[in-house]
Amino acid sequence: MSIFVELEIQNLLNETSDLDEVAVRLISSLESSPDQISLDNINALARFLNHSGRYLQLAEFVIKNIDNENFPIPWPYFMEALGHATITLDEKVINALIEGIQESESENEAARSAALNKYSPLLGEWRSNRKYRIHKDFLSNKKNLLDQLITLRTQQLYEQEKVLLARLQKLYPGDSDVAHEVREHRQRHALEILARRSPRARDPKPEELSPKDPEVEKVLLILLQSLRDHAEEMPEMAFDFAIAAFMFEGFETALDILQFCENSESVAWFRLEVLLQCRRFIELLNEIAHVELAYAHEPETFFATAYLRAQAMWGIGQKHTAVEILEGLLASRPHYRAGSALLSIWSGGQ
Predict the structure, then answer these.
(1) Residue 328 neighbours by CB under 8 Å, 6+ apart
(2) How high is the mean pLDDT of the chain?
């Protein structure tokens, strides 16, 4: 809603609770301020009138100003108002309405309303075309973002990839392609941590052999406790706080914070990763079984859980079984780079 109209509505509602009076005075206020006649303001006014049930006032307001070439017609709201208001809509009126929409090239905007579809098949056709374009744009945008993701991954820009994945999850919740990329991202991150900590990965530098700065450790403990406290106070942000704790390698704190999260697929998969980092391998194996049942309908589930199960089996000393699981995974997915790299590390450490 525009700031001008929003402030006007707030001021008027502070003065009176009579919505008819608010509608009349709001229209008068806008008409007396020609510099405020913009599409944003007109749409905001029309939205308020429709939501408050003032359909007739909206229809009359638009009809009164329709001959003004500078007046931006709020087509979807106007059509909704005509559909609800006690106004006679004969064939002549509908044809004039369609002609006005076509002349202003506003078919896409008008198609947002289905209120008048019964009067003309052309209106329904516009709505179908709009749905098709939205779906097409939806898929095209998803493809473009996934292409950007591959570029970031190729350039090993981990944090930028993480941000883009978060955006994809918000735009396409539940999408299997996005879920697959999220799991790939987590698995590669887990592998990088494992590789960094492997004694064969690199020779330790002298400074890495010295104990950590106790002051830094103290600050870190305070920070992790703060994340935990905030998660309890704001459970809607708990998942973000758990991820933050994980990034600071406060794995036990991250696990503790997850108790405040609502159950979801993202939380379930992240919990498996946290259990792995906490070295709670038996719990991890139990949780994997639950996740496999819950998301058995997704084709990637068993490949992802096989990768985690192998690491859990390795962690409890069942190294032969762990290698067998990973080899079975690679037999089905020979190009599964995370699995190949992990098997290589294990083979070198045996």
Answers:
(1) 306
(2) 80
Q: How far is CA 35 from CA 1, 22, 63, 70, 121, in A?
A: 17, 21, 20, 11, 38
E strand or H helix at 272:
helix 265-277
Distance CA 1, CA 7 (A): 10
pTM value is 0.42
**Residue 181 near residue 168 (C-beta atoms within 8 A):** yes
209 band by pLDDT with thresholds 50, 70 and 90:
very low
CA-wise closest residue to 25 among 5, 47, 41 = 5
Token pair of 348, please? 């070198």
User: Which DSSP state fits 207?
Assistant: H
109: its two tokens: 């905007």
* Cα 232 to Cα 238: distance, rounded to the nearest angstrom: 7
Helix, strand, coil percentages, rounded to 5, for the chain: 75, 0, 25
pLDDT at site 86: 66
Closest CA to 12 of 2, 31, 25: 25
Q: What local confidence, expressed as pLDDT, does residue 253 receive? A: 93
DSSP states of 5-26 as a string? HHHHHHHHHHH---HHHHHHHH
What one-character DSSP code corresponds to residue 211?
P
SS3 call for 82: helix
User: Using CA atoms, how far apart are residues 346 and 349, in angstroms rounded to an integer?
Assistant: 5
Q: How far apart are CA 138 and CA 94, in angstroms?
A: 32
Query: Which pLDDT does position 159 carry in this prediction?
Result: 77
Asked if residues 123 and 110 have their Cβ atoms less than 8 Å apart, the reply is yes
**For 216, what's the count of Cα atoms within 13 Å in the CB-facing half-sphere?**
4
